[in-house]
Specification:
The chain is an all-alpha fold. It is built from 28 helices and two strands. The protein has a two-stranded antiparallel ribbon with strand order 1-2. α2 packs across α4, α16 runs parallel beside α19 and α19 crosses α23. This is Lines homolog 1.
């Protein structure tokens, strides 16, 4: 085989440059055809060269075969590329056809099950490329490969052919998912239909095997853990293909409604932690309809039009998950310390739970709860289900976060998702939608808040469930240091979740401004009281944070809020010793225009009507909305008046236009929040005038202007008592 090396090197140079072949196709095919019989002794031979002549021959045969496999894969890739010259493409395609006539697929299957992991990997990749190429050019499935997969999946999960089979299936499904030109769903049906019953039995067998191992309390071997990991990849790809092609395929339906629920037991099985972690992430992406997003080479929008059949399939998964949660599934989910980077380790003082898994569990449960609440119409059932799930979720968080006495019940969102902006916004959006769904279920105003116990307002149900929208929004602003540029990045990025959440919250804020002011005031008060025994923190602190991001100051301002609101003298003295600091607004830079935001465009691209509420009303009726009338703004102001606290606070440098009797206090948190929204409105308006904003923000601007007007009127004392 040594005589093939010069010809292979020359062929490699030509194919690498996508050039025309100097030899005829038949001769090139003879160079490339791998010989599996010449490697019969490779399985037991040392793959490194040795002095022994026989070992040198085996090593040379192995290297030649590896080079042939790499060249075949490269040749198929060039023949499939749109950028290849048509004449060159015909030459390369002819060579591939000649190789296939010489049973290339059979040879690749033989090599894929060899114990040499390098050759097995290369041949599996090459076989996958060949199958995909035949799907695209000949519109047919390679029968020999399909039979190999069916036979392997029919064997025991520990069979040596299972891993090569799963590897080729994963590569083929990835190719189908990534190829934007291959839009023929019928090919997918032809490919998946024969696999359906066999694959389902294989999954059940493998998961049952894991369950049996769990009963024996013995650790699962690394090969089985690797097989489970490949199976999870394959399951996610099948769900992603289901979403992309919008075809109701039996195999995809089985994975969503049967196989994933069966895999819930993995979290309590003696499998490697990375397998449990991977399963929880697959579960999260499946519920969010973002399955397969990590398999795309570039950022890819996963938003799809409504698919009623898919919704029904996901609902079945939701019911299975919530039933498991009711049976204590959350208590079985293991959360280890966060994974260190580059193989290092954290010091004991820096250790913290794996927030990726913790956040994925929370997001999965909340998404499932949101989907189920949309299906329920009876208010009593909604309240019961909401309380049951949220109690278990918060108990789960308290256990893993070390919550002894949380500073605020709603802080968990910022704590868990401090490193994952996209998931934080997704959770905030879900909690807001659930709040609006059950709007009048929440206690709008506490029955009694005694002086000296102002934090009793946190006893409201929305706070105790950790889903009060005003608290979550203020804590979100605090987590980004009230930085307008960060919010602007969220709005103009391809991630549309913040746009949906922000529009929905601003509509609530228009009607709930007094309660927002009360929330800011009490958050500021809680911050000052927590820090009164020591230096006042820079801003209201999140548990576990060692650094704050902005000044915690209670500022005197010409505002008319029904009653004077002051801080205790002990707190005031500590506050006055601090310099007043504010977060400087970031300069708004030029942003690259992106494409339209697709399905969520309806939230901002309204007609020319002055009020955006009618165009963006919720599609679902709120079953609890008619129970009690909305709390009056004056009730909130009266509640603020009950906080009879005395003291002096440093004044903010504003132009005093009101008399002393109309002068009340406005907290630094409220001031920074309002200023952040005002600067955001100005930045969006400026970019829109320059035609640099990626979509029409007219409705968004109307909402922001309305909120800024409320803030200005409050500061000027124009809001009636």
């Amino acid at each position: 085989m040594e005589g093939l090396l010069p010809g292979l090197r020359e062929l490699h140079r030509v194919v690498l440059n996508v050039g025309s072949l100097q030899h005829d196709a038949q001769k090139c095919a003879s160079f490339l055809a791998p010989n599996s019989t010449a490697l019969s002794s490779t399985d037991t031979a040392d793959p490194t060269p040795a002095d022994n002549e026989g070992h040198v021959s085996v090593w040379c045969a192995r290297e030649v075969t590896a080079l042939q496999l790499s060249l075949i894969r490269m040749l198929i890739s060039r023949a499939d590329s749109q950028g290849t010259d048509p004449d060159v493409k015909r030459q390369y395609t002819c060579i591939v056809d000649l190789l296939q006539q010489a049973d290339l697929d059979k040879t690749l299957i033989c090599l894929s099950v060899t114990s040499d992991k390098v050759l097995s990997h290369l041949s599996s990749k090459c076989l996958s490329c060949l199958v995909l190429f035949q799907l695209k050019t000949k519109n047919k499935v390679n029968i020999r490969w399909l039979q190999f997969c069916l036979k392997s999946l029919s064997e025991s999960p520990r069979c040596y052919t299972v891993m090569p089979c799963l590897s080729t299936l994963i590569c083929v499904f990835k190719g189908l998912l990534r190829d934007e030109n291959l839009q023929q769903g019928d090919i997918l049906s032809v490919l998946l239909q024969p696999l359906d019953p066999t694959f389902e039995r294989f999954c059940s067998s493998l998961l049952s095997d894991v369950g049996t191992t769990h009963c024996q309390t013995s650790a699962l071997d690394p090969e089985s853990s690797c097989c489970l990991s490949c199976l999870l990849d394959l399951m996610e790809l099948l769900i992603a293909l289901r979403i992309k092609y919008k075809r109701s395929l039996p195999l995809c339906h089985t994975v969503l409604s049967v196989t994933i629920p069966q895999a819930f037991t993995l979290v309590s099985s003696p499998v490697a932690y990375y397998v449990k972690r991977q399963f929880i992430l697959v579960l999260k992406r499946s519920l969010l309809k973002k399955a397969g997003e990590d398999f795309y080479p570039v950022l890819h929008s996963m938003s799809q039009p409504g698919d009623p059949v898919l919704e029904q399939e996901i609902t079945m998964l939701v019911l299975a998950l919530l039933n498991s949660v009711d049976q204590g599934w959350l208590l079985q989910v293991p959360i280890r310390d966060r994974i260190s980077s580059f193989g290092g380790s954290y010091m004991a003082s820096e250790s913290s739970p794996d927030l990726v898994v913790l956040g994925a569990v929370c997001l999965s449960v909340l998404k499932a709860l949101e989907i189920q609440l949309l299906e329920v119409t009876l208010s009593s059932i909604i309240a019961e289900k909401l309380q049951s799930v949220m109690d278990q979720l918060l108990a789960f968080l308290r256990h893993h976060l070390g919550w002894q006495k949380p500073w605020h019940p709603c802080e968990w969102v910022s704590l868990v998702f401090i490193e994952q902006d996209d998931d934080m916004l997704e959770v905030a959006n879900i909690l807001l939608k659930m709040y609006l769904r059950c709007q009048n279920f929440w206690s709008q105003v506490p029955v009694c808040v005694n002086p000296g116990n102002e934090m009793g307002i946190w006893d409201g149900i929305s706070h105790q469930f950790g889903c009060d929208p005003n608290c979550i929004f203020v804590l979100l602003l605090n987590s980004v240091a009230f930085d307008t540029s960060v919010l602007l990045d969220f709005l103009i990025s391809s991630e549309t979740c913040f746009l949906e959440y922000f529009v929905r919250y601003l509509k609530l804020l228009k009607e709930d401004w007094p309660r927002f002011c009360l929330t800011c005031t009490l958050l500021e008060l809680a911050s000052c009281r927590k820090g009164s025994a020591r230096d006042v923190p820079n801003s209201f602190p999140l548990q576990g944070q060692t650094e704050s991001v902005a000044a915690a100051v209670v500022l005197q301002s010409p505002v008319n809020l029904q009653a004077s609101l002051s801080l205790p003298t002990s707190i005031t003295n500590s506050v006055t010793q601090k310099n007043v600091r504010h977060v400087a607004p970031s300069q708004v830079s030029s942003y690259e225009c992106t494409s339209s935001l697709g399905a969520l465009q309806r939230l901002v691209a309204y007609d020319s009507s002055e009020d955006s509420d009618s165009e963006c009303s919720e599609e679902q009726d709120h079953p609890l909305a008619a129970q009690t009338p909305r709390a009056d703004s004056t009730d909130i102001y009266k509640q603020m008046g009950k906080l009879k606290l005395k003291g002096e606070c440093p004044a903010f440098s504003t132009t005093p236009t009101k008399t002393a009797e109309n002068t009340n206090l406005i907290t630094g948190t409220l001031l920074k929040s309002a200023r952040c929204l005002e600067e955001l409105q100005q930045a969006i308006n400026r970019l829109h005038r320059k035609q640099l904003f990626p979509y029409n923000p007219s409705a968004l601007l109307r909402l922001l202007i309305h909120v800024c007007t409320l803030n200005r009127e409050m500061r000027e004392g124009k809001i009636s008592h």
